[in-house]
């Protein structure tokens, strides 16, 4: 609450006491309840996510729903499901498939590839060329193959 001052025309000052309700500022995991208070967003179990964004005052109507295919959530929280790691894009064998509650697990490099480096503890593999001629054709393509 705060004191509200109203200025009238012709330099008359009228001061009145009024309650001016300011909207509360909700944090990143709260929505504004119709009663004017900030309330915690629903927390979803692993394998679920909220049906929409919730936080900073918005989203009180959302409920927990299962993760979409190809996504997972391993924590109990308000975060959306994350996309599953695609081992084939990393040139790695799939050891354990992704499930709604855990990410997939990648294994060794696929045949014909070798470890390249590390990105967030997920190693990528690059294709190894068996002959120098293969590398030259990639660097200087044969004109008939250029479209």
UniProtKB/TrEMBL annotation:
Gene Ontology BP annotations: positive regulation of canonical NF-kappaB signal transduction; positive regulation of JNK cascade
- Coiled-coil stretches: none
What the entry lists under InterPro entries is as follows:
TNFR/NGFR_Cys_rich_reg, TNR19/27/EDAR
Task: Give the bilayer topology.
Answer: Single-pass membrane protein
Example of a GO cellular component annotation carried by this entry: membrane
Instruction: Report a single Gene Ontology molecular function.
Output: signaling receptor activity
Q: Which UniProt keywords apply?
A: Disulfide bond, Glycoprotein, Membrane, Receptor, Repeat, Transmembrane, Transmembrane helix
Gene3D superfamilies linked: Tumor Necrosis Factor Receptor, subunit A, domain 2
The listed locations are:
Membrane
Q: Pinpoint the residue ranges of every TNFR-Cys repeat in the record.
A: 66-106
Question: Which Pfam families does the entry mention?
Answer: TNFR_c6
Q: Which residues does the UniProt record annotate as the domain TNFR-Cys?
A: 66-106
What PROSITE patterns does its record include?
A: TNFR_NGFR_1, TNFR_NGFR_2
Q: Is Repeat set as a keyword in this record?
A: yes
Annotated protein name in UniProt? TNFR-Cys domain-containing protein
Q: Which organism is it from?
A: Oryzias melastigma
Taxonomy of origin reads: Eukaryota, Metazoa, Chordata, Craniata, Vertebrata
């Amino acid at each position: 609450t705060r004191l509200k001052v109203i200025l009238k025309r012709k330099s008359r000052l009228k001061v009145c006491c009024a309650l001016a309700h300011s909207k509360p500022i909700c944090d990143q995991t709260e929505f504004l309840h119709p009663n004017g208070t900030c309330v915690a967003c629903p927390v979803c179990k692993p394998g679920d996510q909220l049906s929409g964004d919730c936080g900073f005052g918005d989203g009180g109507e959302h409920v927990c729903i299962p993760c979409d295919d190809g996504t997972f959530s391993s924590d109990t929280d308000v975060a959306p499901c994350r996309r599953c790691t695609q081992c084939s894009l990393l040139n790695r064998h799939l050891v354990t498939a992704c499930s709604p509650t855990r990410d997939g697990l990648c294994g060794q490099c696929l045949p014909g590839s070798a470890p390249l480096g590390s990105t967030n503890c997920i190693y990528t593999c690059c294709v190894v060329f068996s002959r120098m001629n293969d590398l030259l054709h990639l660097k200087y393509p044969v004109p008939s193959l250029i479209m």
